[in-house]
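testing teh design pipeline on a random one, pls ignore if ur not involved
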């Protein structure tokens, strides 16, 4: 019997050492390999020096062209069982072509996080206003339409799943909560409390929340350092621009160190991950890495969103914080171990690959066996296929003709 095929279409080639989004796609690829699928990954983007070597996983790579009939010929030949889009923009670009030339393919949208929610929170933060999702922004209309057109959308945060079903009335059967998928059978040695020192932060600086977080750290660091005069704050992250570098204050013990190839191995040398994130969406991979590394974290409620509401493996900061909890966590070995243990427990309870792989496999098999029934229930999605994509489709065809 031939293997089933899953075709990933990415806006970019995955960079797992640059961002949690890149690592998320690698996790999904490995999951389908575990299910014994043949995996193909295609993108219109150019690779960077940090693109993951997918061929090391026996994944076939294909360079795609946007607004080009070559994709139609390719998808007609391939006829994949499943197509996975790495965000709604790729579904907009290629979804109608897949629907037209490989209609039996199950189309799955990996939302990563809700882009329209992130945009709304960004605007609210910049303008110092409350977050407003209504009236719907153009981005929200596009992203929600993409969810309706897809057979299944993977949602990484329970909070975002709840938002979609309760505020936007998205049918629950169109959504599947699938968080980060973590391998938990590691037995490697981790440095103990006394072998660690200092604070760290890590984030991809192409994402504005990470830059704003470092600005907050720079602001609060002098107060923390007064109570911990020997402590240092080390900032890591991909795409560390000159603007980020300018935030360093070596005389105050605040250093900007740039990219690291292995975030977990880096974080395990620190006593605390400090990341008071002011806005954003989805799950923050830095906190998952910190739990693996046995490093408690100090963040904001928005940073912890989707990971847990109570028993955070560290503490939350608020606007009027005196930083006493943070200081105690840094100095008190017993408290530090308690928070470290909470992190290990949280990984096991919510992010265990073995748990989620079984549940996801059942869902995929169910859709595969009942695809017509699923699509018949999704009346809005059917209407979207008929009407909503026409503008995108014919604009794409016009560009295609123009390029000939």
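output:
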């Amino acid at each position: 019997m031939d293997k089933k095929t899953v075709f990933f279409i990415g806006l970019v080639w995955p960079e797992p050492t640059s961002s949690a989004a890149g690592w998320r796609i690698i996790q999904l690829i490995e999951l389908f390999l575990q299910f014994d699928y043949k995996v193909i990954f295609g993108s219109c983007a150019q690779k960077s020096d940090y693109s993951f070597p997918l061929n090391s996983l026996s994944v076939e790579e294909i360079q795609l062209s946007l607004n080009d009939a070559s994709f139609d010929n390719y998808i007609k030949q391939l006829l994949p069982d499943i197509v996975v889009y790495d965000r709604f923009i790729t579904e907009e670009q290629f979804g109608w072509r897949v629907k037209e030339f490989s209609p039996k393919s199950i189309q799955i949208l990996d939302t990563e996080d809700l882009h329209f929610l992130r945009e709304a929170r960004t605007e609210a933060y910049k303008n110092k206003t409350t977050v407003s999702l209504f009236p719907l922004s153009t981005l929200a209309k596009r992203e929600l339409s993409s969810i309706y057109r897809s057979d299944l959308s993977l949602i990484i945060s329970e909070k975002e799943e709840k938002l979609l079903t309760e505020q936007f009335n998205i049918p629950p059967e169109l959504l599947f909560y699938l968080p980060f998928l973590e391998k938990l059978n590691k037995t490697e040695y981790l440095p103990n409390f006394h072998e660690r020192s200092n604070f760290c932060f890590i984030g991809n600086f192409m994402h504005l929340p990470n830059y704003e977080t470092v600005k907050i750290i720079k602001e609060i660091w002098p107060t923390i350092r007064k109570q911990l005069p020997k402590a240092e704050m080390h900032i890591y992250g991909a795409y560390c621009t000159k603007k980020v570098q300018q935030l360093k204050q070596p005389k105050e013990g605040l250093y900007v160190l740039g990219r690291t190839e292995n975030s977990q191995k880096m974080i395990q040398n620190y006593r605390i991950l400090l990341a008071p994130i002011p806005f954003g969406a989805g799950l923050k991979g830095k906190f998952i890495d910190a739990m693996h590394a046995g490093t408690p974290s100090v963040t904001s409620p928005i940073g912890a969103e989707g990971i847990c509401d109570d028993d955070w493996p560290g503490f939350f900061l608020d606007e009027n914080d005196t930083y006493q909890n943070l200081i105690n966590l840094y100095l008190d070995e017993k408290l530090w171990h308690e928070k470290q243990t909470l992190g290990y427990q949280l990984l096991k309870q919510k992010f265990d690959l073995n748990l989620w792989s079984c549940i996801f496999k059942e869902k995929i098999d169910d859709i595969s066996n009942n695809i017509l029934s699923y699509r018949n229930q999704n009346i809005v999605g059917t209407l979207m296929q008929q009407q909503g994509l026409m503008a995108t489709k014919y604009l794409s065809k016009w560009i295609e003709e123009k390029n000939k």
